[in-house]
């Protein structure tokens, strides 16, 4: 049985050992107002102390509620939260793309959705370098994806797939919530319906399967119906390219 208290201690020790062995000083992470970033923020604050955690909100034609919930998390765990509004950056980029030709909304949809997390990750790395310089210690960027999202490839290449340390990647959604309960992550954040904040759809609506079904499948594919199993396997196969970069190697005789 999953023991959230024990797992919290293990994750905190994992963070501390990695930071100590690599002479690291702080962490930067995007705070979306959702459970994953809330739990990651709570864990890093516990491991490193709030003075070594920098949270970032990065609105980009986003729901204003995201910032409000992010502030609740920052207030709870006492770490610095800054805001970098990427709306005008996104709009400027789009203006340049419009010079290339006329494209309809359906053609642009996927590119637009994925541009936003890519801009956000660039922002996180910019701030990590900036804070490393002004604080005199190395800051790295934390990932926030959980095991369910990763299994079905629900992330953006060059966006939220890019980070320096990952602490939820081997935890299911249910385990993340259990850890959040242990760390007293604010309920309005921990139980918020998961959404990318980009497409006006919940995660489960976009995926076509529930996170609970993905958890059951990963435990044993026979735990779900054939229809659900086929959907999950199709998503997994379709997104395998996100995990591997094919690299040509010359053959030396």
Corresponding CATH superfamily = HUPs
Sheet of most strands: 5 strands, parallel
Strand order of the largest sheet: 3-2-1-4-5
- The rounded Rg comes to 19 Å
For the record, what CATH class applies? Alpha Beta
Summed up, the domain count is: 1
How far from one another are the termini? 53 Å
Backbone shape: globular
The counted number of beta strands is: 5
CATH architecture: 3-Layer(aba) Sandwich
Question: What class do helices, strands and sheet pairing give?
Answer: alpha/beta
Helix content percent band: 40-55%
Total of helices? 11
Mean pLDDT: 95
What ranges have pLDDT less than 50 throughout 5 or more consecutive residues?
Answer: none
> Which topology does CATH recognise?
Rossmann fold
User: Strand portion, in percent?
Assistant: 5-15%
Oligomer: single chain
Helix/strand order:
HEHEHEHHEHEHHHHH
Can you describe what's shown?
With 253 residues, the protein is α/β, with parallel strands linked by helices. It has one domain (4-195): Rossmann fold. The chain has eleven helices and five strands. A five-stranded parallel sheet has the order 3-2-1-4-5, with helices on both faces. Helix 3 links the parallel strand 2 (53-57) and strand 3. Helix 1 crosses helix 7 and helix 2 packs across helix 7 (173-182). The chain is globular. It starts with a helix and ends in a 15-residue tail after the last helix. The mean pLDDT is 95.
């Amino acid at each position: 049985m999953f023991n959230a208290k024990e797992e919290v201690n293990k994750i905190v020790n994992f963070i501390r050992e990695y930071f100590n062995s690599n002479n690291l000083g702080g962490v930067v992470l995007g705070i979306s107002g959702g459970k994953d970033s809330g739990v990651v923020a709570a864990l890093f604050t516990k491991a490193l102390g709030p003075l070594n955690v920098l949270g970032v909100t990065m609105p980009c034609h986003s729901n204003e509620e995201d910032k409000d919930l992010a502030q609740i998390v920052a207030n709870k765990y006492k770490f610095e939260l800054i805001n970098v509004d990427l709306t005008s950056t996104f709009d400027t980029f789009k203006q340049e793309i419009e010079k290339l030709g006329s494209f309809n909304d359906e053609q642009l949809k996927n590119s637009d959705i994925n541009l936003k997390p890519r801009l956000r990750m660039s922002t996180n790395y910019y701030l990590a370098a900036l804070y490393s310089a002004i604080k005199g210690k190395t800051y790295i960027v934390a990932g926030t994806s959980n095991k369910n999202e990763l299994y079905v490839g629900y992330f953006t290449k060059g966006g939220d797939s890019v980070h320096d340390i990952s602490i939820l990647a081997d935890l299911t959604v249910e385990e993340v919530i259990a850890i959040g309960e242990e760390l007293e992550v604010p309920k309005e954040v921990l139980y918020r319906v998961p959404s990318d904040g980009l497409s006006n759809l919940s995660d489960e609506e976009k995926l076509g399967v529930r996170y609970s079904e993905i958890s059951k499948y990963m435990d044993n594919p026979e735990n779900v119906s054939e229809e659900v199993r086929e959907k999950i396997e199709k998503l997994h196969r379709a997104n395998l390219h996100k995990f591997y970069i094919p690299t040509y190697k010359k053959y030396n005789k």
